[in-house]
Amino acid sequence: MNVVKKFDLIVLGGGSAGYAAARTAHEKNARVAVVDGAQDLGGLCILRGCMPSKTLIYSAEMLHAAGQGNVFGFDRASPKANLKLMQERKQKVIGEFANYRQEQLADGRFSLFRKQGILQGVNEVRLESGEILEGEKILMSTGSKVSVPPIPGLSTVGFKTSDDVLNLDYIPTECIVLGGGVVACELAQFLGRIGSRVTILQRSSRLLKELPPEASAALRAQLTEEGIEVLTEVNLQEFKSDKAGGIKVFFDHGGKVCKRDTTFLFLGLGRSPNVDENSLGDLGIQLKPSGHIQTNHFQQTSVPSIYAAGDCAGPHEIVHIAVKQGETAALHALGFAVPPVEYDNLLSVVFTDPQIAKVGLSTEELKNRDINFISASYPFDDHGKSILMEAKKGYVAVHAEKSSGIILGAECAGKDAGELIHSLSVAVSLQATVHQLLKVDWYHPTLSEIWTYPLEDIAEEIPV
User: Fold this and answer.
1) Percent of the chain scoring above 90 in pLDDT
2) What is the DSSP letter of 452?
3) CA torsion angle for 360, 364, 365, 368 (degrees, to 10)?
4) What's 287's DSSP letter?
C-alpha cells in the first residue's frame, strides 16, 4: 500500500473535539488530516444531541407554558403538539449549524477524508479504501454510542434510542423510559409534554444520581406533578416481545416482581465510548474500567504519539469540555506549552424543567478533600421574581472556603438555571469571594438576585 501523505496530526472524527483540535493545529501551521466516514458531518452535538434535543425541549416548554393560562389570568384554547411543525423547525435550526460545520471542515484548511479509518499502528491510520495515512501524532475523537446493557431480551425487542425520539413523527400513546440520567429525564419530560403517558424506570435510588439530592427531588416533584410516573430502585429482569408487536418489561420493585406492557420502550441508560477495545489494546492503549480511553491531563494516551478527546475519552460528555480537550491535545501534540485540563471548575446543565445546573466542587467533593467550607441555600418559592413567574420549584446554593470566603462551587435547580449559573461560574473560575460578589449590583426584581441571599448568609460568618 502506498502512503497517501504524511501529516503532523491526524484526527479521527470531525465532531466537537476533533474539529477543535484540527482548527487549533492548523492555526499553528501544522499539516492536518481529518478522517470522518459518517453519513453526515457535524458530530453528536449538532446532529443528534445538544442542538436537536434542546430545540424540541424548548418547543415542549412553550407548549407547556401555553397551557398555563388559568394560572396567569388569560383565556386559552387547548394547545396541542404538532410534531410535523416541531420537526420542521428542528431541522431548520440544526441544518444551519450542520452546514456551517461541514463548510468549516471542507474549506481547505485540512485534508478531509470522507471515509472510515482505523488505527493501523502508533503512527498510521488505514482508510476503508486501503489507503494509509501517516501522522507524527494521532487524535482519537470517535465519540460515543448508545449503551445496551446485557439484560435478557433487551437487544431483541426493538427498543427506541434518543435518535428515534428526536426524529419522532407521531406521539406515542404511552412509553416506558429506561434510565434516570440526563438524556432520559430530558426526553421523558419532552414526551410527557407532547402528550405521551410516561413511566420512568430508574435503577438507582433517585433521578440524576450524579447531581445533588435536593436537585433530584425538585425535578421528581415536577415530573410527578406533570403526570409522569417515576419508579426508582428498579431491578430490570427481562424483556419480551408479544404477538401484537408490544414489549413486556419485567422488573423487581419494592420487593415485588412487576410487569409492564408498552409499545414504545425508550432506552436511556447512557452512552459508551465508541472504540474498538481489541485494536486499541493491541497497540498498547490503555482503557479505563468504563471503556473510555485512558489519558493524562494533556489528553495523551499510554502511547505517546496517540491522544484522545471528547466522549471516547470522558470523563464528561459535555461539548465545551470536548472542545477544551481537543485544543489541549493539539497544542501538546505539537510541542506547545499548554495548561493541563482540569475539572475543578466544571460547569454542567440539565435542560429539564426545572433546569438543574452546577459549577465547581460539590459538598461531597469538598468533604472528600477535607476542605473546610460553608454552604448556604435559598428557595425559589420565597423569591419575588420567581413567585410572580410561578417558577417556585427549586433552590440555589453556594459553597465557599470558610477561611477566605472564596467561592468553590454552586448549584441551582429552578427556572433558567442554565443561565443563572454563569454568574457563579465566573466567580468560581476567577476565585472570587462572597464579599466581592456582594459588591456587584444585583437588579431587583430579577431571578439573578436570588444569589445574594446565600452569599449574604455566608458573608455574615466570614470576616472581610
Assistant:
1) 83
2) H
3) 160
4) B
Residues near 223 by beta carbon (within 8 Å), at least 6 away in sequence: 185, 188, 189, 192, 200, 207, 230, 352
Closest of 396, 355, 357 to residue 378, by C-alpha: 396
Indicate the domain borders of the chain: 3-145+272-333, 154-269, 347-459
Helix, strand or coil, per DSSP, at residue 401: strand
Name the CATH superfamily, with its identifier, for domain 347-459: FAD/NAD-linked reductase, C-terminal dimerisation domain (3.30.390.30)
The candidate with the shortest Cα–Cα distance to 189, out of 205, 203, 208, 204, is 208
Phi then psi for residue 34, to 5 deg, are: -115, 125
C-alpha cell at 298: 494533556
Give dist(CA 289, CA 251) in Å, integer: 27
Distance of alpha carbon 108 from alpha carbon 324, whole angstroms: 23
The single-letter code of the amino acid at 278 is N
Q: DSSP letters along 325-341, please?
A: HHHHHHHHHTT---PPP
Residue 455 burial (CB count, 10 A): 28
For residues 151 and 262, give the distance between their C-alpha atoms in angstroms, rounded to a whole number: 17
Model confidence over 117-158: pLDDT tens digits? 989 899 999 998 889 999 999 999 999 999 899 999 999 999
| E strands, 103-164, in order | 111-113, 117-121, 124-127, 132-140, 144-146
